[in-house]
Amino acid sequence: MVFRVKGSVAEEVISSVRTVHAFGVQGTLAQVYNGYLLKSHAIGISTAMWIGVCIAIILFTVYAAYALAFYFGTTLIISGELNAGTIVNVIFAILIGSFSLAILSPQLQGESIEEACGAAAKLYATIDRVPPIDAYSEDGIRPETVMGQLDLEDIQFNYPSRPTVPVLKGINLHFNAGKTTALVGSSGSGKSTLVALVERFYDPSSGIVKLDGRNVKDLNIKWLRSQIGLVSQEPTLFDATIWVSRRSFIDIAQPNTPQENVAHGLINTKYEDLSKEEKMKIIKEACIMSNADSFISKLPEGYETVVGERAILLSGGQKQRIAIARAIVSDPKILLLDEATSALDTQSEGIVQDALDKVAAGRTTITVAHRLSTIKDADTIYVMGEGLVIEEGTHNSLLNKPDGAYYKLVQAQKIREGEEVTTATEADDSESMTTDEKEPDDFIPLDREKTHQSVASQALEQRMKERQERHKRKYSMYQLFMRMLLLNRESWNRMIIGAIAAIMTGAIYPSYGIVFAFALDGFSQPDNHVKRIKGDRNALWLFIMSLIAIVTTMAQNWNFVAAATTLMARLRFNMFTSILRQDIEFFDEAEHSTGSLVSSLSDDPQKVNGLAGMILATLLQSLSTLVVGYIIGLSFTWKIGLVGIACTPLVILSGYIRLRVVVVKDKYNKKAHEESAQLACEAAGAIRTVASLTRERDCLHMYSRSLEKPLQVSNKTAVWSNMMYAFAQSVAFWVIAVVFWFGARLVSELEITSTEFFVGLMSTTFAAIQAGNIFQHAPDMSEAKEASEGIVRIFDSMPEIDAQSPEGEPVKRKETKGHIRFEGVHFRYPTRPGVRVLRDLNLDIKQGTYVALVGQSGCGKSTTIQLIERFYDPLAGRVTLDGKDISDLNVAQYRQLISLVSQEPTLYSGTVRFNILLGAIKPPEEVTQEEIEDACRNANILDFIESLPQKFETEVGGKGSQLSGGQKQRIAIARALLRDPKVLLLDEATSALDSSSEKLVQAALDQAAKGRTTIAIAHRLSTIQNADCIYFIKDGGVSESGTHDQLIAQKGDYYEFVQMQALSKKV
Questions:
Q1: Best exposed site among 55, 602, 752, 1008 by fewest CB in 10 Å?
Q2: What is the pTM of this model?
């Protein structure tokens, strides 16, 4: 359980690294992670002791059996039941077999077999679990025709994770076939829950959901979901192309294997088996309808552009438009729009809304909306509150109730409009004409802009070159070993004790050879009395040595396993902190995806056991046996010893060759498995989207295919690897044969006695076998080297923007005014060097003013916020705070002046209090309850928190899963306000709020903005109409600026945006 939670915490934090950097909580979250590490470390230390005891008992039993064998063998020989030759054969068989236990001992530690058993138990429990809603089931009715009539009768529902909190309380709703129905209401009222019930992500606690009069439980689950197009509040795209998947182009025309984002909407539909050309046609039509085609066509690779993990390379609006295209591409009978246009700018929203209005014809459409301009034409509007329907009607009928809830929501969203209202289509046409007319204006600044672009291109090329050099750096085995050794200083005492014990354990093996030789000599004595005396004496010596072995083996295993456990915990913690230290550019790289980093964080420290822990102990033990064995051999009979030593290099060489083969194999395997880990992480993180698209088997197919590559690599190298292993093992026995042959000749020529021969034979036998076993763990050593290189490379990776560096000019909070300027800023994302995002951007945001950035999705608004946060540095130009270039300021102190509320709020596993306190700039224990409550009150979340059973101590779940989108956003706002920032950045800060909450929060934000600089990105223009200055961003630059009234009077780009969002449209 501890190991699983530890991994989920890492995934949660790394996937939201921008929030981590914005609030400077790397240390806080690292300590949370460390808390789970300490728990697992304590378990590991306890386990180490029992491992040492168990292995020691096993080996003691084996070695004591030798003593018993010689004692009882002597008895059998004296009694005449067996001859000496038979006894010797049996003892030698036991001797050789016992080496297998020695080889197995590293695998008997808790980090191998025990964890494997624990992991297998969890895997089989998951595999054997029969879900109540089985996505793979072929059972259920598949009606030939669908009308789309949905009825929810007396629905009551509680989330399984919160069984005591009722979400829906006996609700009755009717969604007429072919009609558009809207659900509005406060956050947490149950709107999105209704969508989940229609999709059958859950079944109601009581009541019935019907489709065309049939209980949805009686319908085939895949068929049901294939009749529904869903666009969620937070769009999820997959790390693939928009249309053509270059990674699996051959599979595009094959059934059940579409891997492109828009075509995911065709799975399990009648369009699934169309030709590539036919698919492309309907996909392009869907993208045109969702207003996505315009920006897709401008991308360097068009529809073949890979969108990246979590579609990080696209803006929120661009992601949403592709998600809408995916939902409508299969022409579903039912369309569910859960805040489908919330992330779109006004112009895109108007165009998309017109498209959605058109595609809604002939199908049942359910729209969950906070932005009321998108649903005022709905056939029916249900107003929800506290799990019940409180009002029902059309837009106009509900507006005739001045005291009604809907009327109040509308009033909260009204915008001061201009004289006219244009349609979305007219606005789209106007934009095209405006773009054409502006072309001559580009002539004057052409030369200056070209110079900026040259500087920007050179800067970007230099960064990419430095990044490639960092990736090429190699480390020797010695360097890696010393790094691991220095990192594990606190375990040096354990390692020294363990090393001494391992050397003593290794020396016991050849020492047995001496006793064996004299014991065999005792068997050949003619006098039974002498046989008895020598047999008893030799058995006693063997028993004494077994007692020594139990002590040394236990000390060896206990200390090395404990040291390895400590090293793994330290590696994971240091690796986690080093990952969080990296700048945002690091996480944009494909090889540093969340899945890849979490996989490395979990697996690489475990693999380092090849340079520490039990494998190191085994190597020391084997080397000790090798050295002591040859010393004994040379001491008793130097000729036999020299023969054994002469043959040893051949054994070591064969093992070394195998090691090199395995190193190459593991390198390719690691690379291939990172892809499969990323696929699994991506699918699991977006499981609702996967379920709604019925992509379960598609994801399974992709995952299976991602495992084919490492399988092929493994099969290709396994032959050579195992040949080398077999050769190393056989060479050891060849050495024994040579020594036996040569020793027999020496005995026959009377150069040595039989006792000397057996001492030489036994000591060189032990030495040769252990020489072969040195490379028994070649795969582990190879994995350890590869893993250590990856870990050390992360340790040594120093970010260009280092939030933990003390360098930079100190920032004095009291003297900071908050005057932000952009001066000729040019910028391109390092992962998309061919796309210019900002082009000579100039902004002047004066102290204490409320400034809004407005423009189409992808125009550079969010990039501007990221540059202010200093997630990136401009390629040309500069960003200043109070006249000082922010790149000269101390990063951590600078970010303490800023609070960010992002478009998609991020919360972490923990309590409400914990998440809010992440915004504090002083230690959590110094923050008063009054300060926390004031921040929550200003964010309109205090009443909700107080209504929870455990109030501020309520667990929010992983990524805030126990809260609605609006509730998460308000907690994020409270977190931002807690630090009393000088600069407040609002990137669609109220996009997830219902109108009632939005009005209260906006009023609170307006109040909070006094005395501080506030920069807001907004698509919902009602939230920024009172801004001191509004900048309209277009094509990476400012096209116009002024107050709301000034820009309305100009009747330019901003005016068109207002007209398309005005509530009076078509009324």
A1: 602
A2: 0.65
